[in-house]
Write a structure and sequence with these properties.
This protein is an alpha+beta fold. The protein folds into 2 domains: 3-181 and 292-376, 3-Layer(aba) Sandwich (Aminopeptidase), CATH 3.40.630.10; 183-290, Alpha-Beta Plaits (2-Layer Sandwich). It is 32% helix and 25% strand. The strands form 5 sheets. A 6-stranded mixed beta sheet has the order 1-2-6-3-7-16, sandwiched between helices. It is elongated, with a radius of gyration of 24 Å.
């Protein structure tokens, strides 16, 4: 058996135990006290493995102590400690290990991925496997809410990294790695009309709701499924009473694009919207705020390496594209990025959130092998555009 795989198999119970500690330390986005507790837990558990720096906004930056660490740049692992689950979720959704799975709020997205990386680095250190680059683990505290405070910090680290490994969960129960993600954002479409009594003075009014409905019927036509572009009016609001012609209405519209050039074209379409009822006015704000993670040569090179290393572990890895975003969207334009290296399971953000216990050891060993491989390279990884994944 591969030495690293044998190590992670021996330590599977300890990996689950660390995952449990983190899952049971509930840490919803925006809850500063809960996120501080989670940060304290991680910093304490990594005290013998890494130099941990606490950064404003609840972020952690961990530099691992590894054999053979050189000055040939750095490798960045990227994760987040915040979850979508409010404090108290554990009461009805407790941590469990049963039926070949590990269950709990945040176990897949993405506390297991953090535990995997910690033990991957411990394996490299304890087995004396040299890594010629500095290895950093950045853990953000606002990923689930858009990474507004952490984005610039993430991008700065990525610019100085040979590669970025994202500890988000893989795709599906096969644990496919993610070599492309759509970019996305939200447009807010606000309409101002003219109020009037719906029974007494109907023709004097200009309904903002009717105008908004007309605009929404235009906006949904921007969807182009063949090109992977989707436009979804997800929230609408307007009016005051049923007998009042609405003076104001607004919609929030989610957009997803596979390429940055698609974002520019879509923005032009939104900016070209004009009112049908000239008595109404339209105000548009927002746009694409998370760039696509495009499948570049650098991404492909990382995936091919992972594919080869996976075969050494007896695992056949596949790649995937997803419509969801991660902090990997921010790093991909700046450094070769491979996403989906965390837990293998299903149910992220859902009551059946879980990971497959049988995939803990090989996933952890894969991370160790990737870091060792990246640490042994001296040449940069090629980084130009390539075809989309199948």
């Amino acid at each position: 058996m591969d030495n690293l795989l044998a190590y992670t198999e021996r330590h599977r119970g300890a990996i689950v135990a660390l995952t449990r500690e983190m899952v049971e330390c509930e840490s919803p986005s925006g809850d500063e006290a809960a996120l501080r507790r989670m940060g304290d837990l991680v910093a304490d558990r990594l005290s013998g493995d890494a130099k941990v720096k606490r950064i404003a906004g609840g972020r952690l930056l961990c530099e691992f102590r590894l054999p053979g660490r050189g000055k040939e740049g750095q490798i960045l692992a990227l994760g987040h400690i915040d979850t979508v689950w409010p404090v108290g979720t554990l009461a009805g959704m407790p941590f469990q290990e049963r039926d070949g799975r590990v269950w709990g709020p945040g176990v897949l997205d993405m506390k297991s991925g953090i535990a995997f990386f910690v033990f991957a680095m411990r394996g490299l250190r304890e087995l004396g496997i040299p890594v010629g680059r500095k290895v950093l683990l950045q853990l953000n505290a606002d990923e689930e809410t858009g990474s507004k405070t952490s984005r610039a910090f993430t991008e700065d680290l990525a610019r100085n990294s040979a590669a970025v490994l994202v500890l988000e969960p893989g795709t599906g129960l096969e644990g496919k790695l993610k070599t492309a993600r759509k970019g996305g954002g939200v447009y807010r479409l606000a309409v101002e009309g003219k109020a009037a009594h719906a029974g007494v003075d109907f023709t004097a009014g200009a309904s903002a709701i009717v105008e908004l409905a007309r605009q929404i019927s235009r906006v949904v036509e921007f969807t182009d499924l063949e090109r992977g572009i989707t436009v979804n009016p997800g929230v609408i609001a307007g009016g005051t009473r049923s007998n009042v012609i609405a003076a104001a209405a607004a919609a929030e519209v989610d957009v997803r694009v596979p390429k940055m050039k698609d974002a520019a074209a879509l923005d032009r379409k939104f900016r070209a919207l004009r009112p049908v009822d000239k008595r109404c006015s339209i105000q548009l704000s927002g746009g694409v705020n998370r760039p696509p993670m495009e499948r570049s040569r650098g991404v492909v090179a990382l995936f091919r390496a992972a594919e080869r290393l996976g075969r050494e572990l007896g695992v056949q890895l596949e790649e995937s594209m997803t419509g969801g975003g991660s902090d990997g969207n921010f790093t991909a334009p700046l450094a070769p990025t491979l996403d989906g290296l965390g837990g293998v399971g299903e149910g992220a953000h859902a009551p059946h959130e879980s990971i497959l216990a049988a995939r803990i050891a090989d996933r952890t060993a894969l991370l160790a092998k990737l870091v060792a491989w990246l640490g042994s390279r001296t040449e940069p990884i090629g980084y130009t555009s390539d075809s989309k994944p199948s």
